[in-house]
Amino acid sequence: MGRDPNIWSDPEMFMPERFLDVKIDYKGQDFELIPFGAGRRMCPGLNLANRMLHIILGSLIHKFDWKVVGNKRPQDIDMGEKFGITLQKVEPLMAIPMKL
Ligand code: HEM
């Protein structure tokens, strides 16, 4: 459902801003978006993850400039995925933090 074109426009496109104008609950109530699963076996780490992710990501962006290994432009990064229990990139992202 997370990639259903009947629900999401251009679902394969990385477009985080698509979530700004929607009132979809990500805590297992609206099945269009269930990053933490739903029901009795849903992720018990949801609240911890929700609190920590903003702090971690914000700190990494605030404190460092980032360069992709091989001086690749962001648009040239291979976003291919490989099949597995969890979704992984075919080519791992190697980014170098540079202190500001
Ligand atoms: C962005 C962060 C995270 C995401 C996207 C995520 C996602 C998920 C998903 C999709 C499941 C499977 C739910 C299901 O079967 O319906 C799961 C299960 C689980 N997660 Fe997370 N998780 C995250 C962070 C965490 C953290 C921080 C913890 C612990 C500190 C955690 C602990 C667990 C455990 C123990 C299960 C197994 C629950 C069970 O099978 O009953 N997760 N998670």
TrEMBL record:
Its cofactor is heme. Gene3D superfamilies: Cytochrome P450 (1.10.630.10). InterPro entries: Cyt_P450 (IPR001128), Cyt_P450_CS (IPR017972), Cyt_P450_E_grp-IV (IPR002403), Cyt_P450_sf (IPR036396). GO terms for molecular function: heme binding; iron ion binding; monooxygenase activity; oxidoreductase activity, acting on paired donors, with incorporation or reduction of molecular oxygen. It comes from the Eukaryota. The keyword Oxidoreductase applies. Keywords: Heme, Iron, Metal-binding, Monooxygenase, Oxidoreductase. The keyword Heme applies. Heme binds at residue 43. Belongs to the cytochrome P450 family. This is Cytochrome P450. It comes from Lactuca virosa.
